[in-house]
Amino acid sequence: MSNYTVVPRQEEAETEVEMKSYNAAETKHEGKSSTSDAAKTVGAPPPPVPAGWTARGLPVGNPRVQRDEWESSISSCLGKNDEFHSSDVEVCVLGCCAPCVLHGSSAERMGGSAAGTFATHCVPYAGLYLMGSCLFGWNCLAPWFSYPNRTAIRRKFNLEGGCEAMAGSIGCSENIRMDEVQHEHCESACDLATHVLCHPCALCQEAREVRRRLPHPGFTAKPVIVMLPPGGQAMGR
């Protein structure tokens, strides 16, 4: 009987020791995991940008990315009557009397310091202008040459396109589902239509936008060092 009563107590003692050791091991493991998780949270680098997103956080290929508005509308012939008012009046006069000069000036600002940009845009425009006026009685050829400059301005400054503005004005912009390629094709066609139907106004709007955003490449300010000679000295008596 004595042997029968001792054996279960030994088994119970061994079981209790095993359970205590198991609980201690689990507690230690949990402490290590929490410590490692905290270390990872504190010292870990920021999560990488997911694929399909730009460095600025804008989704690639999303046609409804928020775009900026033009500085002035296409019907604002004299601009916004602010500090650029005199420049806007000059733009309006050039758009009516010398559109080839206005188009060449805008292309020159967009081209930066590229040599010959003004001539390569002004001279062909003038030739197409004269040809269309002589053959068809109106300037119908030059808009086909000048509308890519409007597309370049719109892309460079992330401006709102004509199709997007029209869809937003009638309240159906959210219902239009197009990928980036289709959206760009639609906006390029709208740029062409704008130049064909409202060519002088389109040239003036583009020139106002470029002048307000980009300085003229020829007006680069450089520091000038002026050395003055010392003043005359008189001998004291």
Automatic annotation (TrEMBL):
Domain of life from the UniProt record: Eukaryota
One Pfam family from the record: PLAC8
Name recorded for this polypeptide: PLAC8 family protein
PANTHER family, A to Z: DUF614 FAMILY PROTEIN-RELATED (PTHR15907)
InterPro entries named in the record: PLAC_motif_containing
Region of interest (Disordered), residue spans: 1-60
